[in-house]
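tl;dr need the bound structure. longer version: we got a ligand (NAP) that a collaborator sent over and nobodys looked at where it sits. i said id run it. heres the input, straight from their email, havent touched it
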Amino acid sequence: MRAMRIHRYGDASEIREEDVPRPVPGPGEVLVRVEATSFNPSDLGLRRGLLRDVFPIDLPVTLGGEVAGTVVETGERVIGRAFGAAAEYVAVPARSLVAAPTAVPLAHAAVLPIAGVTAWQAVFEHAKITAGRRVLINGATGAVGQIAVQLARHAGAHVIAPARRPGADLSEVVDQVGAPVDAILHLAPVAAGGVVSLLRPGGVLVSITERVPVPGVHFVTRDDAGDLGGLVALVDAGVVQLDVLTRPLADLALVHREAEAGLLRGKTVLVIRGR
Ligand SMILES: NC(=O)c1ccc[n+]([C@@H]2O[C@H](COP(=O)([O-])OP(=O)(O)OC[C@H]3O[C@@H](n4cnc5c(N)ncnc54)[C@H](OP(=O)(O)O)[C@@H]3O)[C@@H](O)[C@H]2O)c1
């Protein structure tokens, strides 16, 4: 099968399309025929070797951290966290998979296991957003941010999603927001800076990027099929809409280069084509 792999850490030229054997599922795993995987900013750190202390891997390795596809044995359409999904097939722990939404193309649902579940856990688990809260979301245009905005609005919150001018920093936001907020979701890869001053006393600051001072919360997304299933239900109900750009998997190295150059816009899904 075709797979996008790296044999050593380095720049995007290390990403190679190779012909490798299909993975053989281990105990508790199923083989999934991949429809799509998606690009996440952390893929850059993994490729460069920056995550090797927190996430040790044996090289060579197939890239891709989440999947939308079909279980080979049963034909079920599924999504889930899946390491090595930038390939035609991937073996995935069955407990990580849930039924894919039916309201959107299967490939588009490849954004839900990481960006979607991160947004879910930020909004509901860490910030505990409820009706009537004033919530500031930094990075609202990003993959996580777009879904977080929809989830917070669905919870009945008043969402403030400040616009960012190219080159401007977050301290500008302070002028746009005015009154203090009950919660800040910091979903942008920069320092939260002066924005933190907008939090009311006792409010909650949740970050998925920089570590923030206690009592703020920084978290790394947990693989949670329950949360993923909750998101699928909201996608099928039309509450959460997915805005994605699809590219062929063969473009993966190019996508990495565009992301590093700051040229990638929107959430990129990589579709397996031309089997
Ligand atoms: N902790 C975790 O478990 C976890 C999970 C998922 C993601 N993450 C991290 O969270 C971040 C967001 O992920 P994502 O997938 O949503 O990324 P993304 O799609 O690239 O979105 C990034 C967001 O940050 C904004 N941004 C970028 N540079 C900025 C700056 N200098 N000032 C203000 N805003 C800026 C972008 O705004 P523009 O649209 O204006 O560029 C966009 O809204 C990434 O750093 C990612 O690695 C962490």
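gonna send this back to them w/ a short note. The pocket of NAP is lined by residues 40-42, 114-115, 118, 139, 141-145, 164, 170, 187-190, 208-209, 220-221 (CB under 6 Å).
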